[in-house]
């Protein structure tokens, strides 16, 4: 097994968690579904590509920053893991208490070129502080403080997150009209997403 690969059980656990996160309505999903509904699938895929580009930046910076902290102080890394666990629990409770904020933007312009849609999606992702905080607190839960090749494993998991999002997101874009209508019309469906995310 290559040195950068975590154990299979870690990959499976991370994949499950990443899938729940991907399917939970948030700013990125709202943006690419909204663009798809208003301007077509090409705009939806452009928005998804932009959000993915932002995630590459977040995943890389988070993995390198966590690795630097681990190299400097395994004890501080453990503190980060505990703080990260508490933050993830807070996110779960917040999802149950406050629910999703899924809504489509009624002011979307059909005439926006795909390049502008892509860049706006990058900006939405990069300027969302919750994304970087999530990566900084999420990735350490899957790597031990004394694990060999921790940097490579953190980078692998960060990019594996992107791999997980593709087969889950493409069908959402292809069925955006029906999904948007279903989510808007069914508060119970949104609550199911909330409890799934909390889990």
TrEMBL record:
Primary subcellular site in the record, as a coarse category: membrane
GO terms assigned for molecular function: amino acid transmembrane transporter activity
Regions crossing the membrane: 12-33, 45-69, 75-96, 117-142, 154-176
Pfam family, one: LysE
Subcellular location field: Cell membrane
Bilayer topology annotation: Multi-pass membrane protein
Keyword ATP-binding carried by entry: no
Range of residues in the leader sequence: none
A Gene Ontology term for the protein's cellular component: plasma membrane
Keywords: Cell membrane, Membrane, Transmembrane, Transmembrane helix
Source organism, top-level taxon: Bacteria
Descriptive protein name: Homoserine/homoserine lactone efflux protein
Protein's organism: Methylobrevis pamukkalensis
Chain's gene name: rhtB_2
């Amino acid at each position: 097994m290559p040195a950068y690969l975590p154990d299979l059980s870690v990959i499976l656990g991370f994949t499950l968690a990443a899938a729940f996160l991907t399917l939970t309505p948030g700013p990125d999903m709202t943006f690419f579904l909204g663009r798809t509904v208003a301007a077509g699938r090409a705009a939806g895929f452009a928005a998804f590509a932009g959000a993915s580009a932002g995630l590459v930046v977040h995943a890389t910076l988070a993995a390198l920053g966590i690795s630097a902290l681990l190299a400097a102080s395994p004890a501080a890394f453990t503190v980060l893991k505990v703080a990260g666990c508490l933050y993830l629990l807070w996110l779960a409770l917040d999802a149950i208490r406050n629910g999703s904020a899924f809504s489509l933007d009624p002011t979307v312009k059909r005439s926006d070129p795909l390049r502008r849609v892509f860049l706006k999606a990058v900006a939405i992702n990069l300027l969302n502080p919750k994304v970087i905080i999530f990566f900084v607190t999420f990735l350490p839960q899957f790597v031990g403080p004394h694990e060999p090749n921790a940097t490579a494993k953190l980078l692998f998991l960060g990019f594996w997150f992107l791999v997980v999002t593709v087969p889950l997101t493409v069908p959402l874009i292809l069925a955006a009209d029906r999904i948007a209508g279903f989510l808007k019309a069914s508060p119970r469906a949104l609550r199911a997403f909330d409890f799934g995310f909390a889990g």
